[in-house]
Amino acid sequence: VEDMVAVVRKFLRDKFVKADVGITGANAIAADTGSVLLVENEGNIRFTTVAPQIHIAIAGVEKILPTLADAMIEPLVQSAYAGLYPPTYVNLTSGPSSTADIEHNRVRPAHGPKEFHLILVDNGRVKANKDNILREALLCIRCGRCHFHCPIYRAIGNIWGDPPYSGPMGAMWSYIVKGDTKPAMYCVHSGNCKEVCPMRINIPRVLEYIKNLGLHSKGKLDYK
Ligand code: SF4
């Protein structure tokens, strides 16, 4: 594994340096400051957000939290439940690079990106938020903890769900984003996912609800 990582490291370093634009997601977004939080261990996100001249972050609207203080908690919870606490890096971006070293006047850009753009994606999320059962799924922070405690995921792995979504979490998101009720049908309601979820999402209840929608739509995608 070390040899494979070394090859990838050498190959990607050059790409990071030469890229014109860096594109990332976001683990959390602070509504009060417009800041984006990203958690990682590899250092690729740090490169992507700093080395290119332009940084574009693309994230679902459910990632928006009221304050920067709220948003800063998310990476710690995400990394803890993903089994990688403490995370190697937490990246906070609040706009293009800047300096205020001279007379405390903020001047942009400095050494990092000249531009920062945040693209918010709805793709079924706002509609789900209006549904009393489905809205619970929007609390998901994609830690992946539910995967490893699910008997179905342990048996069949990543083929369960619509990529990039997989596992119990993915069965919920496959419906919210793609209107696909089939992944929910795999759930056997062991309840393990609900017990380990840091956001206390009642995943079996959400999946039961999606199953019912799928059965009553007679196979049609009636959601979107
Ligand atoms: S449903 Fe819960 S346990 Fe599963 S990925 Fe989302 S937050 Fe983590």
UniProtKB/TrEMBL annotation:
<keyword id="KW-0411">Iron-sulfur</keyword>
<dbReference type="GO" id="GO:0016491">
    <property type="term" value="F:oxidoreductase activity"/>
</dbReference>
<keyword id="KW-0677">Repeat</keyword>
<dbReference type="InterPro" id="IPR017900">
    <property type="entry name" value="4Fe4S_Fe_S_CS"/>
</dbReference>
<protein>
    <submittedName>
        <fullName>(Fe-S)-binding protein</fullName>
    </submittedName>
</protein>
<dbReference type="Pfam" id="PF02589">
    <property type="entry name" value="LUD_dom"/>
</dbReference>
<dbReference type="InterPro" id="IPR037171">
    <property type="entry name" value="NagB/RpiA_transferase-like"/>
</dbReference>
<dbReference type="InterPro" id="IPR003741">
    <property type="entry name" value="LUD_dom"/>
</dbReference>
<keyword id="KW-0479">Metal-binding</keyword>
<dbReference type="InterPro" id="IPR024185">
    <property type="entry name" value="FTHF_cligase-like_sf"/>
</dbReference>
<keyword id="KW-0004">4Fe-4S</keyword>
<dbReference type="InterPro" id="IPR017896">
    <property type="entry name" value="4Fe4S_Fe-S-bd"/>
</dbReference>
<dbReference type="InterPro" id="IPR004452">
    <property type="entry name" value="LutB/LldF"/>
</dbReference>
<dbReference type="GO" id="GO:0006089">
    <property type="term" value="P:lactate metabolic process"/>
</dbReference>
<dbReference type="Pfam" id="PF13183">
    <property type="entry name" value="Fer4_8"/>
</dbReference>
<keyword id="KW-0249">Electron transport</keyword>
<keyword id="KW-0813">Transport</keyword>
<feature type="domain" description="4Fe-4S ferredoxin-type">
    <location>
        <begin position="131"/>
        <end position="162"/>
    </location>
</feature>
<keyword id="KW-0408">Iron</keyword>
<dbReference type="GO" id="GO:0051539">
    <property type="term" value="F:4 iron, 4 sulfur cluster binding"/>
</dbReference>
<dbReference type="InterPro" id="IPR009051">
    <property type="entry name" value="Helical_ferredxn"/>
</dbReference>
